């Protein structure tokens, strides 16, 4: 797992600190500056700090019989890093607060390896964190990023085009299969267990004028509502253009959460072919941004063939029930 000799950290004796040393040994040079009470981060002049936190809790965000410990560590970290991608920020590092039950202690190395996989893929570092004992496994991952021009949700403009990266529907199809006790297709499961935080892609899009951006974590339709509300505009989706994984319906693609693809608004002239050539991932124009018609913050989906409005799924909400 390590890329070199494990760093030496100035910690005293104790079982908790032995576990910390074990984590740092797994991460090797990925772990940077660990051992003090807090991390110190230097940013180049002209860049702004971008910070987000994501929590992953056993039996809320994952189940041990569905995912390996390494996949759980990776997925929790990738979901947090995706928030940096949505802001067009590069990854500076992550801070991980890990609540570790006794039943999971033997899986600590695999959890650490999964965290390291995601951090390495985003070209970041592990800057510190916290380790505590508890009844349920939980990973709270704080990500630190930097950007000269962070992209928010509030600047979509009428006349912009609406885009999304990748293809949608795989995580929802996987979740449905697992809940039925069936094996999902390998392709769908890979989208569920090993999502990619589009950090480099987000920086590329920001550099080319993305006006608003969000990662697809709660479902495309639900997440675009946030963009529409923040920008005070109306988003019109062409349902026939929404990219779906094999076997997924439009409704699946609109509702599927934990995709971690990027949805964005930008000029209609955005070079989608250059994006696909650079990253090996499609960038699809799926609609337009229009001025609100007395209902700021609305999202509408229409299909070319039927010209009928498609009902939007609600998206995921932790407190909806």
Give a structural overview:
- Helices cover 31% and strands 23% of the residues.
- Residues 306-310 have low confidence and may be disordered.
- α2 runs parallel beside α6 (199-207).
- It has helices spanning 15-27, 69-86, 108-121, 170-179, 186-193, 199-207, 220-231, 250-255, 272-279, and strands at residues 48-57, 90-100, 126-133, 138-147, 161-165, 212-215, 233-238, 262-266, 283-291, 298-302, 309-310.
- The strands form 2 sheets. The chain has a 7-stranded mixed β-sheet with strand order 6-8-5-9-7-10-11. The protein has a 4-stranded mixed β-sheet with strand order 1-4-2-3.
- The chain is built from 9 helices and 11 strands.
- The protein is of the alpha+beta class and 321 residues long.
- β2 (90-100), α3 (108-121) and β3 (126-133) form a beta-alpha-beta unit.
Strand content: 15-25%
What kind of sheet is the major sheet? 7 strands, mixed
Q: Share of helix among residues? A: 25-40%
Q: Main sheet: which strands, in order across?
A: 6-8-5-9-7-10-11
Report low-confidence residues grouped into runs of 5 or more.
Answer: 306-310
Question: What structural category do the secondary elements indicate?
Answer: alpha+beta
- Global geometry: globular
Helix tally equals 9
Give the topology string: H per helix, E per strand.
Answer: HEHEHEEEHHHEHEHEHEEE
Oligomer description: single chain
| Average pLDDT figure | 90
Tell me the number of strands.
11
- End-to-end Cα distance: 41 Å
- From the alpha carbons, calculate the radius of gyration and give it in angstroms: 20 Å
């Amino acid at each position: 797992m390590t890329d070199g000799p494990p760093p030496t950290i100035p910690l005293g004796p104790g079982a908790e600190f032995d576990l910390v040393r074990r984590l740092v040994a797994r991460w090797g040079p990925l772990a940077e500056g660990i051992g003090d009470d807090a991390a110190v981060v230097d940013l180049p002049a002209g860049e702004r700090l971008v910070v987000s936190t994501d929590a992953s809790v056993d039996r809320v965000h994952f189940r041990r019989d569905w995912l390996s410990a390494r996949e759980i560590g990776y997925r929790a970290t990738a979901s947090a890093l995706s928030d940096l991608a949505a802001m067009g920020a590069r990854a500076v590092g992550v801070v991980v607060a890990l609540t570790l039950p006794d039943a999971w202690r033997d899986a600590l190395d695999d959890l650490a390896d999964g965290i390291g996989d995601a951090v390495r893929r985003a070209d970041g570092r592990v800057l510190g964190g916290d380790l505590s004992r508890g009844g349920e496994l939980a990973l709270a991952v704080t990500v630190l990023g930097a950007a000269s021009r962070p992209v928010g949700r509030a600047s979509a403009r009428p006349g912009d085009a609406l885009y999304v990266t990748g293809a949608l529907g795989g995580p929802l199809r996987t979740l449905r299969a697992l809940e039925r006790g069936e094996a999902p297709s390998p392709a769908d499961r890979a989208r569920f267990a090993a999502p990619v935080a589009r950090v480099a892609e987000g920086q590329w899009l920001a550099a080319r004028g993305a006006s608003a951006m969000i990662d697809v974590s709660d479902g495309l339709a639900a997440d675009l509502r946030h963009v529409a509300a923040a920008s005070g505009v109306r988003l019109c989706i062409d349902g026939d253009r929404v990219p779906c994984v094999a076997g997924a319906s439009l409704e699946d693609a609109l509702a599927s959460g934990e995709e971690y693809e990027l949805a964005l608004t930008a000029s209609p002239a955005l070079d989608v072919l250059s994006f696909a050539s650079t990253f090996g991932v499609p960038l699809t124009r799926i609609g337009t941004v229009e001025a609100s018609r007395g209902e700021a913050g609305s999202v509408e989906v229409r299909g070319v063939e039927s010209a009928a409005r498609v009902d939007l799924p609600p998206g995921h909400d932790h407190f909806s029930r």
